[in-house]
Amino acid sequence: MAVLGQIRNRPWLLMGIIALAMLAFVVNPDSLEKLFGANPGVLGKVNGEEISKEDFDDQLFILQQQAQQQGQPTSGLEEQAWQMLVQSKLIKQQFEKMGLTLTEEMFWNQLQYDPMFAQNPENFDAKGNFKSQEIKKQIEELKNSGNVEMYNNWLKTRKAIEYRMMARQFFANVSTGITVSKKEAEEMMKQRDQLANIDYVKIDYNAYAQKNPIKVSTKDLEDYIKAHPIMFKRDASRNLGVVYFPAAASATDDAATLAEITKLYSQGSDVSGGKENFQNTANDSMFVALNSDMPFNPQYFSANQLPSGIKDKVAAASPGTTFGPYKEQNFYVVSKLLDKKTSDSTLSKHILIAYKGAERSTATRTQAEAKKIAEDLLAQIKANPAKFAEGLKLSDEPNAVERNGSVGWTTPETPFAPGYLNFLASNAKGSTGIAETPFGYHIINIEDKKSGAMTYKVANLVKAIKASDKTENEVYTKATKFIQQVQGKSFNDFANIAKKNNYQFFNPKEVGRFQGQLPGLGTDKDEEIIAWAFDKKREKGDTDIFTVDGTGDRVIVYLNGVQDAGTADAEAVREQIEPIVMNKLIAKQISDKIAAAKATSLDQIAKLFSTGKQSAQVNLLSPQLAGAMEPKVAGAAFGVAKGKLSNPVEGATGVYVLVKKSETINKQPGDAKQIAQSIASQNAQQFGQALLKSLQDNAKIKDYRIEVYNKAAQQ
């Protein structure tokens, strides 16, 4: 038992926080267990190396445990797990190509530098030496303890640590060869100090397009994509049209809710035959429980924690005073001040006995077993209070022994589990007892108490302003009429009809199979809609209607495009690249006009486009011109001979033609060594991510997940 107690106080043995430096990237299909059962499966390949279901499950487990420890949602992590697996495989492959091997000795030597261990001072002795032997011993004890689940968790954690070690070693070895020579630094200084004085004519893209409208065709987009294949490499995606019909409460529904709560407030409930109402009830908690859409909360709150409709009124009110009805967001509320008292700040400590299924728990014991352990331990502590310190070894809270189980000073406003706070509020200094919360059973000792600010106990009767059946039916009728109107129509018709009727319209263009939510929507039907769109039976132009559970909201979806893995569909990325392609088309037209006019001077070109000649000073290292960064123009300024007319330059904001008048030197402080160090620092910051992206862009990555899910859906 002592061994297990020590294990519980070493959170790294329970779960490894996967902080893959430079290996981090988010979303949500159904559980793979439902698809595969106990049979292994291959979800993909990275340069021929398989990603198995087991690999995926382990990575997903670690991410979910991390999210749980941080109080974050544990769903929607599948895509992140996949991306991290792909990157981990790439790093491992490069590590092995370099002839490197992660030996057992290297693992233990490098463990102290891993973030999971390096950031915890408990893993080092007073002299700063890493306690590797002690940690080895703890793992060996865990292995022999019979707790298979916890030991397997450690093995999964170790695998993640090994990937991080390989990543550090790989990046360190490669980055060693990235240096900045004296010659490179001197060239950089030259570019920094050189200035070119130029006269130029600029034909602005936007101004030209206003006078000469240009339409960018799908072929124009496709040609640009073909010229930049890596930039437009895409996973499978879908282009969707989405129209959302929220079943929002009408003004009639609002009035009906107000009438209902007013009746309960001053006239009487139907259950009591009209005799008992919120104002005269003798049992406020029961009346709220029977009639409110939110449960009665017996806690005391500060004025700032109360509903905005009463927080400024309770200080001057006496117990029994009622308030309302008043509106809070989508609710009508009536309130009654039950009591007021100064809040106690309480110093307490606890021992947590968790069980399987409790929040953030990795325990394997049942709830009944946990309760028995807590009751037995409480009896021992009451007989001998010194036993509390010994009992901390059994606590399922990380670092409980080191912190003596203390949670510090708390007040009723502290965001703790209500069961814990209720125990503190109901017991005096020196008390020890058990409180149950969603985290398990807490053996709590109240060490001290002191008075604080005024707090208030309030009964709130709440009625949600909901859409009535009539309103929901109207929404359904409207949605059904719309889907009938667009059946068999083009996507433009779909979008135009939606906009004409002022319906909520969205057009997410590159929806991934595992991204979990649809941009702009965010309902519990998003995953189902995405799965529908990726069904292999689905065709462009298909439509369907979805009902959001619990709200009556309707969602109409139109499949506008199917993008298989490979090069991006031109229309799907039109918004992203159309301005770039349009500028290129404009630049060609301008260049062709200059060539056709056989212009030999800036004055001729300025007259040709009804613009003026300007002067400026440009620099290669900081190529700013008239408020825009124009590196191509700066390059042309230093590339053209003095006094010669340059060729048209396709800049970022327009087409430029220039004449260089002279070059000057503006010597700035600094030497080659300083410049070299600065460049090296910049390179180091950008290197890791750039290298990893390059590896991923050029890898042969096979993703079978969509096929697997489609196959499973047919079974």
TrEMBL record:
GO terms for molecular function: peptidyl-prolyl cis-trans isomerase activity. Keywords: Cell inner membrane, Cell membrane, Chaperone, Isomerase, Membrane, Rotamase, Transmembrane, Transmembrane helix. The chain crosses the membrane at residues 12-29. It is a single-pass type II membrane protein. PROSITE patterns: PPIC_PPIASE_2. The keyword Endoplasmic reticulum does not apply. The keyword Mitochondrion does not apply. GO terms for cellular component: plasma membrane. Residues 343-448, 587-662 form the PpiC domain. It is found in: Cell inner membrane. PANTHER family: PEPTIDYL-PROLYL CIS-TRANS ISOMERASE D (PTHR47529), PERIPLASMIC CHAPERONE PPID (PTHR47529:SF1). Belongs to the PpiD chaperone family. This is Periplasmic chaperone PpiD. The lineage of its organism: Bacteria, Pseudomonadati, Bacteroidota, Flavobacteriia, Flavobacteriales.
